[in-house]
Amino acid sequence: MKILVTVKEVATVEDEFEIEGTEIADQYLGADLNEWDDYAVEEAVQLQEAGIADEVVTVTIGPEDCEQTIRQALAKGADRAVRVWDDALEDVDLLDVEAKTEILRGVVEEEDPDLVLSGVQSGDDSWGATGVSLAEELGFEWAAVVNHLEHDLDDGIASVRRELEGGVEELTDVELPAVLTIQTGINEPRYASLRGIRQAQRKPLDVQTLADVGVDETVVDSDLELTDMYEPESESDVTVWEGSAEETAGELADLLEEKGVAP
Amino acid sequence: MSDVLAVADHRRGDLRDVSYEIITAGRELADETGGDLHLAVISGTVDEFAEKLDREGVDAIHTVDYGEEFNHGVYAQTVTQLYDDLAPQYVLTPNSVNGLDYAPAVANELGLPLVTDTVGLETDGDTLTATREMYGGKVETTTELEGQAVVTIRGAEWPAADGTGDATIEAFDVDVDEDALGTTVNGFEEVGGGDVDIGEADVLVSVGRGIEEEENLEIIEELADALDATVSASRPIVDNGWLPKNRQVGQSGKVVTPDVYVAIGISGAVQHVAGMKGSDTIVAINTDPNAPIMDIADYAITDDLFDVVPALTERFQ
């Protein structure tokens, strides 16, 4: 069985930051592997270690800068990576779900996996929709927000649990091929070993253009336009205690006594 | 092409709150487009649901008596067929776990733009302006689009519709292609039971990502002991396996309403806040004065938890 994992480098933002137009100014941004994708990679690698998957391939849409982040997934055990990038994607400030779906479809059709794992959402723009949209596009089955996957995958069925709201899980069988969107907590993502990190540098990372994956440049034309970005107005009427840790702890202690909850 | 179609959410015999909120969101849009608000209620005891959903502002309710529980294939096929019938300008679904299991498929199938997890919506009848969050709530954005769209709305952002409506309630004759249903729901399980019920605690000492390492939980346990309080946690702590699931506060965990909730190293993501905003008094200990938890905290200490927590414990020993 072959597993494709969609991964994304996400932007992280410092506590204090400034907005320029519809973007956060560069100097306040960092980069990391999307948290949800880290769990998806781990799940795929575990399936490989269990002898169920023969090959784990990651796919990302991103510029050359993101290769170090993408190699984190290789360091954790994925076999090789595909990175799609194109001049046409360079200045796009909103790559919508439709565009991501079309681009990833090209890669999935080329790779022909039995199972696609993607994160439930990305930590930066949080659309939470690409996995299910991709499944529909491919004619695959799917399940969103999966927090448990049985590692047998017998008879072409993935038995999963979907994490519903309020501490309820839905037990569902999904026919393969399928896209599962993976929720945090499904496993404990490993840290890459030094050996893994060294090996990752030598693993294949194949760069493809839009034309290579059979997608026209017009894919970037979106119906959506990002028109504004701002810091939400705080509705806070919080009382902030100032002073040393002893002083502020003292204020809190007094409050707890006043509320009658301290012993 | 001016109507709005909204889809209700229910589970195990109960309509979820967002089903009433989506009526409000849908009515606001329909007032601007000059169209009707249609509601779809799919699977389960649809007649009973339809009666409850017949609130002020709803023009028509379409019931689909097919199966008991949510199945994304049934929902996707039904909504697509209703769309073909009604040609609405906007299709609204909840941004719930189930909403995200069919709305993207519907948008893709219909070739419509998709905007998810909206917290505000406006339209002038043609241009839709959607407010969304990015970077875990650090910023809000507006996104505009012309014409038709599929939109998912976040729960608890719109008030629930009330009053009694006079909607027409009709069974919608959906043609479900059963061969295309590739998932089977076998049941449900409540998780997070066990020895401790954080929902019963008067005082919760709740810990989040700011604690950094599992061994640091010790200072939280010591504080809870000194206060005779119960330890709870935000999602990352449970995801890491540092505390069991029955300690998790939030959308996918427990909803708690203690007398005092002390949030330690918790940034206050919307999913967490949904589980604790009903607490009587909320105290936040967090180095980031702009963390979203400050929006709902009554008192805050913007200092290092590793200094404040031991000092507090000492006061009660």
Q: Can you put this structure into words, describing what you see?
A:
The complex is a heterodimer of chains A (263) and B (317). With 263 residues, chain A is α/β, with parallel strands linked by helices. Chain A contains six helices and 15 strands. The radius of gyration of chain A is 22 Å and the shape is globular. Chain B has two domains: 4-180, Rossmann fold (3-Layer(aba) Sandwich); 198-315, TPP-binding domain (Rossmann fold), CATH 3.40.50. Chain B has helices at 18-33, 46-53, 72-86, 103-110, 217-227, 235-239, 270-273, 293-296, 305-315; strands at 4-7, 10-11, 14-15, 37-42, 60-64, 90-94, 114-118, 120-123, 127-134, 139-146, 149-153, 168-171, 183-190, 203-207, 230-233, 260-264, 281-285, 299-301. Chains A and B meet through strand 2, helix 3, helix 4, strand 9 and strand 10 of A and helix 4, strand 7, strand 9, strand 10 and strand 13 of B. Strand 15 (239-241) of chain A pairs parallel with strand 18 (299-301) of chain B, so a sheet runs across the interface. Chain A: Residues 21-217 form the Electron transfer flavoprotein alpha/beta-subunit N-terminal domain. Chain A: One of its GO terms (molecular function) is electron transfer activity. Chain A: Keywords: Electron transport, Transport.
Brief overview:
The complex is a heterodimer of chains A (263) and B (317). By secondary structure, chain A is an alpha/beta fold. Helices cover 27% and strands 30% of the residues of chain A.
